[in-house]
Amino acid sequence: MEDIHIMEALGKAKVVVKNGKVVDVGEPKIKYCPLFDKHRGIKEIDKESIRKNIEFRIKDFGLFTENRIVEVEDCIVGFGTSEIFMTALRRGLLDAVVIVADCAGTVITNNPKLVQGLCGRISGIVKTSPIPKVIERIEKAGGYVLDPKTAEINQIKGVEKAIELGYKRIGVSLTNLEDAIKCKSLENEEIKIITFGVHTTGIDENPEELTKYFDLITACASKMVREGLKGKIKAQIGVSVPIFALSQIGKELLLERAKDVEKPILINVEDLPCLKGRQPDPLI
Question: Which domain of life is it from (predicted)?
C-alpha cells in the first residue's frame, strides 16, 4: 500500500514523499532562513537543498517511515513550539497538547518527550498517511491518535477529544486564525485553550484578531506578523525568527521555557518586536 506525505518545508516549499522517498519538491517562497543557516549551514534555499534536508531527516530519525523515532529529549533549538510545549507539560502549566505528527495526523498527549520527538524536526504537515508501527509506538508512549485509520489532521476535533479525555489546560498548535477562533470558543470556566500559531509565512490576517485569539505565535518569514503586532507583544524570544507571546499565559510559557535553556539568557525591557541580525529573505 502506497503512503503519501505532504509537507511545507524549508522556504514553505511543498515536498511530497511516497514510501519513504522524496518524489517532488516545489519552488521555495523564501530563499534564506537564518535558522537553517545556523543549524544546517544552508546559505540559500533551493530545490536541491530542500531535497537533501528532507532526505537527511528521513535517514536520521525516520521521518515519514515506519522507522520514525517518536520520543526524544534533545533540543535542536532552545525555543520552538515543541520545546515550549514540552517544558509547559513538565511544569504543569499545561495538562496536554494537541499537535500534528507525520504518520499519525493529529495527536493528543501529556508526554513531554513525545511532543519533542514528534514535533522537534518537522515543518508544516499538510497531509500524511497512517503508518501502523509508528502509531503503535505513539500510543505506547501515551499519545492518543485522533484517527489511526486515516491520520486525519484536524486540530479542532483534537481539542474536543482532549476535553472529552478530561484535560483542562490544553495547548494546541494551529496554522490559521479560523481554527484558533473555533478552539477558543471551546473554553469555559474550567477549560483553558492555549493557542500557538505556527507556520505563519505568507499569512494575511487582521493583527487585532491575531492578538485576540493567539496566545503565542511564531514570526517565521511573515512580514505581517513582524509589522502588524507592534505594541501588542507581551514577550519575545529570539530576534531573527522570533516567537511572540500575545497573552499573559503565553508570556508565562516563554519565561518558563527560559529556565530550561542552559545557555546564558539576556532578559531586558524594551519596545517589541526587537528584530536584529539577518532576517528571513524575503519576508512575505
Answer: Archaea
